[in-house]
């Protein structure tokens, strides 16, 4: 039967997970090859390539907060669709810049637009996933009675853990698809990415329903009985509520170390691979290991984190991440046996990923507890922006120290000790920022969609 447009005000969880997977397929089919194009087609040096890629990262990470605020203001559906359109425009601009008009400025504009598109739809998607998670937990609590076995057990893993698995699967498929298309030229690869996001955007216009104001009001308490009487200044404060929540700002700053640490897969790991005498094939194998660990270990680790609770899971995750850097620090003072030169790098990658898998879903699940009855978009935006700023600032500091690891300097351990100390600081302080555990799940704020956690029928 032909699928009709959903006008019930309900979006299904498989739609959200599928969107995340396809977003990552499209992104990783194009973006990993940008550096190659800059070097081969535009003859740029390493520093210039780094500047272009850094600009793209800044456009995405730095604009997440704005994307979250806009999602609160105009609705998650609108921002997701707008983000798809902007990313499609970005990929289309990349295709034009290397085909009809061989223009470096146009190419840079395209890279910035790809980042901006992600900044628009990512916080909005996180908001809908959080809404679905809250509704799952509310349903579980409402069906649990004292002395009666609940027909629906509380979810052992969160939807953010599932989102991570689906996203990593897309990230693994994307480069393979991009490499296959690259044989016809980067213009074809970029144009295909643009076409994919256009198709996804069109499909989501059908699957992400509009809803009436009455439906919206039914999905949560109003922020204030006097909301219509609020001054413009008060309304602006509500739209950037996350910036006025000191506890959450501290939490976001401390948790930013997770993204900084994860980003060392791209900055520090290649340096360690060179130091150990291995080549690009080893680096590729380690990236494959990252995907395998994420896909296979995320859900079991998420179950463990749920049992531990955030007060124990977050410090444990940060300490695990720190241990990976300390392994590399120790390796600079010892000589590894022949054939095991790469062992410290492998151990470090495993520890980084295990730590990341532990803290990532937990941090995302905590946002509704911080936000309470206010809308959540700006909170997810700030959490992502804090991580982006940490990467930009932290990588500058770490990058200046990394040459020490490839020399005979007595300070070869310095970058690893610095990177290892930061997660330990977060582990020690994060508990002080966490909100008290509610007796019930947080009240769901007014959103423009309700979310169904039931599987779609085929």
From TrEMBL:
<feature type="transmembrane region" description="Helical">
    <location>
        <begin position="410"/>
        <end position="430"/>
    </location>
</feature>
<dbReference type="InterPro" id="IPR050171">
    <property type="entry name" value="MFS_Transporters"/>
</dbReference>
<dbReference type="GO" id="GO:0005886">
    <property type="term" value="C:plasma membrane"/>
</dbReference>
<feature type="transmembrane region" description="Helical">
    <location>
        <begin position="379"/>
        <end position="398"/>
    </location>
</feature>
<feature type="transmembrane region" description="Helical">
    <location>
        <begin position="106"/>
        <end position="132"/>
    </location>
</feature>
<feature type="region of interest" description="Disordered">
    <location>
        <begin position="439"/>
        <end position="458"/>
    </location>
</feature>
<feature type="transmembrane region" description="Helical">
    <location>
        <begin position="184"/>
        <end position="204"/>
    </location>
</feature>
<feature type="transmembrane region" description="Helical">
    <location>
        <begin position="79"/>
        <end position="100"/>
    </location>
</feature>
<keyword id="KW-1133">Transmembrane helix</keyword>
<dbReference type="InterPro" id="IPR036259">
    <property type="entry name" value="MFS_trans_sf"/>
</dbReference>
<dbReference type="Pfam" id="PF07690">
    <property type="entry name" value="MFS_1"/>
</dbReference>
<keyword id="KW-0812">Transmembrane</keyword>
<dbReference type="GO" id="GO:0022857">
    <property type="term" value="F:transmembrane transporter activity"/>
</dbReference>
<keyword id="KW-1003">Cell membrane</keyword>
<feature type="domain" description="Major facilitator superfamily (MFS) profile">
    <location>
        <begin position="10"/>
        <end position="438"/>
    </location>
</feature>
<feature type="transmembrane region" description="Helical">
    <location>
        <begin position="342"/>
        <end position="367"/>
    </location>
</feature>
<dbReference type="InterPro" id="IPR020846">
    <property type="entry name" value="MFS_dom"/>
</dbReference>
<keyword id="KW-0472">Membrane</keyword>
<feature type="region of interest" description="Disordered">
    <location>
        <begin position="214"/>
        <end position="237"/>
    </location>
</feature>
<keyword id="KW-0813">Transport</keyword>
<feature type="transmembrane region" description="Helical">
    <location>
        <begin position="45"/>
        <end position="67"/>
    </location>
</feature>
<feature type="transmembrane region" description="Helical">
    <location>
        <begin position="282"/>
        <end position="301"/>
    </location>
</feature>
<feature type="compositionally biased region" description="Polar residues">
    <location>
        <begin position="440"/>
        <end position="458"/>
    </location>
</feature>
<dbReference type="InterPro" id="IPR011701">
    <property type="entry name" value="MFS"/>
</dbReference>
<feature type="transmembrane region" description="Helical">
    <location>
        <begin position="243"/>
        <end position="262"/>
    </location>
</feature>
<feature type="transmembrane region" description="Helical">
    <location>
        <begin position="21"/>
        <end position="39"/>
    </location>
</feature>
<protein>
    <submittedName>
        <fullName>Nitrate/nitrite transporter NarK</fullName>
    </submittedName>
</protein>
<feature type="transmembrane region" description="Helical">
    <location>
        <begin position="313"/>
        <end position="330"/>
    </location>
</feature>
<feature type="transmembrane region" description="Helical">
    <location>
        <begin position="159"/>
        <end position="178"/>
    </location>
</feature>
């Amino acid at each position: 039967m032909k699928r009709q447009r959903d006008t019930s005000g309900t979006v299904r969880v498989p739609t959200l997970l599928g969107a995340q997977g396809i977003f990552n397929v499209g992104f990783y089919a194009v973006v990993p090859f940008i550096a190659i194009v800059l070097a081969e087609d535009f003859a740029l040096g390493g520093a210039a390539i780094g500047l272009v890629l850094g600009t793209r990262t800044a456009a995405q990470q730095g604009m997440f907060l704005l994307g979250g605020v806009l999602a609160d203001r105009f609705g998650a559906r609108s921002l997701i669709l707008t983000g798809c359109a902007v990313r499609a425009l970005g990929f289309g601009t990349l295709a034009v810049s290397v085909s009809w008009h061989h223009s470096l400025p146009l190419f840079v504009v395209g890279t910035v637009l790809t980042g901006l598109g992600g900044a628009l739809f990512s916080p909005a998607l996180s908001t809908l996933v959080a809404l679905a998670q809250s509704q799952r937990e509310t349903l579980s609590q409402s069906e649990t009675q004292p002395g009666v076995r609940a027909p629906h057990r509380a979810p052992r893993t969160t939807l953010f853990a599932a989102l991570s698995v689906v996203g990593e699967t897309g990230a693994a498929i994307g480069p393979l698809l991009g490499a296959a298309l690259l044989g016809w030229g980067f213009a074809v690869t970029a144009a295909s990415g643009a076409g994919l996001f256009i198709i996804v955007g069109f499909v989501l216009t059908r699957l992400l329903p509009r809803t009436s104001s009455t439906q919206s009001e039914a999905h949560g308490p109003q922020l204030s009985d006097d909301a219509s009487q609020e001054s413009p200044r008060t309304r602006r404060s509500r739209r950037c509520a996350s910036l006025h929540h000191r506890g959450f700002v501290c939490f976001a700053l401390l948790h930013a170390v997770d993204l900084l640490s994860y980003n060392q897969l791209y900055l520090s790991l290649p340096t360690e691979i060179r130091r150990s005498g291995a080549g690009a094939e080893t680096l590729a194998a380690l990236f494959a290991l990252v995907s395998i660990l994420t896909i296979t270990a995320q859900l079991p680790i998420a179950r463990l984190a749920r049992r531990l609770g955030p007060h124990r899971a977050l410090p444990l995750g940060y300490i695990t991440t720190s241990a990976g850097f300390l392994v590399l620090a120790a390796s600079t003072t010892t000589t590894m046996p022949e054939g095991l030169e790469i062992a410290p790098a492998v151990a470090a990658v495993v520890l980084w990923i295990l730590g990341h898998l532990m803290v990532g879903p937990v941090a995302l699940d905590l946002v509704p507890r911080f936000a309470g009855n206010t809308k959540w978009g700006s909170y997810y935006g700030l959490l992502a922006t804090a991580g982006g700023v940490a990467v930009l600032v932290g990588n500058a500091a770490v990058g200046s120290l990394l040459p020490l690891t490839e020399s005979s300097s007595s300070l070869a351990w310095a970058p690893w000790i610095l990177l290892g100390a930061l997660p330990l600081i977060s582990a020690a302080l994060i508990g002080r920022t966490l909100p008290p555990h509610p007796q019930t799940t947080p009240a769901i704020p007014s959103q423009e969609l309700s979310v169904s956690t039931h599987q779609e029928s085929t």
